[in-house]
Design a protein that fits this description.
The complex is a heterodimer. Chain A is built from nine helices and five strands; from the N terminus they run H-H-H-H-E-H-E-H-E-H-E-H-E-H. Chain A is α/β, with parallel strands linked by helices. Chain B has one domain: Homocysteine-binding-like domain (TIM Barrel), CATH 3.20.20.330. Chain B is globular. Chains A and B meet through helix 4, helix 7 and helix 8 of A and loops of B.
Chain lengths: 222, 295
């Protein structure tokens, strides 16, 4: 791997946003994701390979998060660094030079206002190269359905933190499946399990953001 | 205003209350509805919950103000009513508790992260200040900053309560067991780190709440006692990890299962014991009975 590309990947994994960012301490004063991406583009490295570096960095931190080796702050900082890279790559996405793997339509279900878990999933999935359409929190089934109509090629992700909103999640899955039996739905959140996901008729369950990425990536190969 | 610390000094173990959210939902609170608004719109229901814990034998009850920060209330467009809703919560619990029981004003996390610049330190502090002042005006004896996961937010809350009031402050964090069998909050804070940080910030009573049942609370309290042998510890335990069955949420730990472990929890250093999600007056009644036996 090109040295610049490798360093971008490390910056994303470690959450090193830019040169002035004090985090992480051992990289203080060094170029971050922002500067290195600029340099990579200036030296004519392809946006695809830069995006690939981002994917690798986010995957590594996502896996460490899944193993409880790092926690929410580390994942958030990695996402911040990833966003710094993405800001440079935006024009290429617009021009169609770089393409997303697919669309992921994500939201916290009706009655639940918690967004931290959903946001983590959104960041890691985006870092893996997917286009994320984030509908926010307290999303009614009708809103999901409206957005699925606009994006019939999407995969849907539902989040819930409260035990009391699991029923709401179950209802959302049911309503989506009634209208769009072929739309794939993955669910996640503290009170859930594989079994609960299966009972509500979802296609998948992920205990952590990286699990959601793995679920999604199965559908590109297919 | 009475001192919880003074009573604990006598060596007594105090009984706290159980879940509020679980009971509010049983009484018809819908997902997506603002629980704190019920202090105005469904005052009798909130009062009945508070009173049910006093009747079950709790020495301490909390207030229906967990999500009463301006940031949380802003989801419902109610941020301008922060003081009113918190004060009402305190008045209801005070009325249920009378003067012979303690009322702890509940303050939960805002859900906003300083790390991601979602909120400023000043904005966080101002919100907690308004909440604490209103809870005091409503008549609470102390404030319980609970379910915290980030040290920065918890410490800002402690400072704000201490500035706004002269009340005793309880601060509890929620820990999960990691793959390597450590305990950490979602922000990566260990019980040991939490104890040192919140004591430094001025917490009078420390503790842990929510989580995955009584067994793990015993492990967490032991870890806390490893770095602090004297600060009183409060435990509000979930009735186990909930699961989904036939469209309903089920909490696995019965009152009997919790009561059976309460002696171990006291022996490892807990001073105030109550419940969190999934616990009911039936759980508290049996806990109170066992705790009295232990005295």
């Amino acid at each position: 791997m090109n040295e610049l590309i490798e360093r971008i990947s490390i910056c994303v994994e470690r959450g090193k946003v830019n040169k002035t960012s004090p985090y992480p301490k051992d990289l203080a004063g060094q170029d971050g994701a922002d500067e290195l991406t600029r340099q990579a583009l200036d030296s004519n490295l392809g946006p695809d390979s830069i995006l690939q570096a981002c994917n690798v960095g986010m995957m590594k931190i996502g896996e460490r998060f899944g193993r409880n080796e790092v926690f929410v702050p580390e994942l958030l900082m990695a996402a911040k660094a990833m966003n710094a890279v993405m800001a440079h790559l935006k024009p290429f996405f617009k021009a169609g030079t770089v393409k997303a793997k697919g669309k992921f339509l994500l939201g916290t279900v009706a009655g639940d206002l918690h967004d931290i878990g959903k946001n983590l999933v959104s960041m890691v999935v985006e870092g893996n190269g997917w286009q994320v359409i984030d509908l926010g929190v307290d999303v009614k089934p009708g809103k999901f359905i409206e957005k699925i109509k606009e994006n019939p090629d999407c995969i849907v992700g539902l989040s819930a933190l409260l035990t009391t909103t699991m029923a709401s999640m179950s209802k959302t899955v049911k309503e989506i499946k009634e209208q769009f039996p072929n739309i794939k739905i993955i669910v996640g959140g503290a009170p859930l399990s594989h079994k609960a996901a299966e009972q509500m008729g979802a296609d998948g369950y992920a205990p952590d953001p990286q699990g959601a990425v793995e679920f999604l990536n199965e559908f590109i190969a297919a | 205003m009475k001192s919880i610390l003074a009573v604990l000094k006598s060596g007594k173990t105090l009984v706290s209350d159980g879940a509020w959210g679980t009971l509010l939902h049983q009484r018809g609170l819908q997902p997506g509805e603002c629980p704190e608004l019920w202090n105005i719109t469904h005052r009798d229901d909130v009062f009945t919950i508070a009173k049910s814990y006093i009747d079950a034998g709790a020495d301490i009850i909390l207030t229906n103000s967990f999500g009463g920060s301006p940031s949380k209330l802003s989801h419902y467009g109610l941020q301008e009513r922060t003081a009113e809703l918190n004060e009402a919560a305190a008045i209801i619990s005070r009325e249920a508790a009378g003067q012979n029981h303690f009322v702890l004003g509940s303050i939960g996390p805002t859900g906003k992260m300083l790390l991601m610049d979602e909120i400023s330190t000043q904005e966080l502090k101002d919100g907690f200040f308004i909440q604490a002042e209103a809870l005091k005006n409503g008549g609470v004896d102390a404030v319980c900053i609970e379910t915290m996961s980030a040290i920065d937010e918890a410490c800002i809350a402690i400072h704000a309560v201490k500035e706004a009031t002269n009340l005793e402050v309880v601060c509890t964090f929620t820990f999960d067991k990691t793959a390597s069998d450590d305990f950490r909050t979602m922000m990566g804070v260990s019980p040991e780190d939490m104890v040192l940080a919140v004591k430094e910030a001025g917490a009078d009573i420390i503790g842990t709440n929510c989580g995955n049942g009584f067994e793990q609370m015993i492990e967490i309290v032991s870890l806390m006692r490893g770095v602090d042998s004297s600060t009183p510890i409060l435990v509000h335990a979930n009735a186990g990890k909930p699961f989904f069955k036939d469209g309903d949420t089920v909490f696995p730990e019965t009152p009997e299962m919790m009561a059976a472990k309460v002696h171990d929890l006291i022996d490892c250093g807990a001073n105030i014991i109550g419940g969190c999600c999934g616990t009911t007056p039936a759980h508290i009644k049996l806990l109170a009975k066992e705790i009295k036996k232990h005295r």
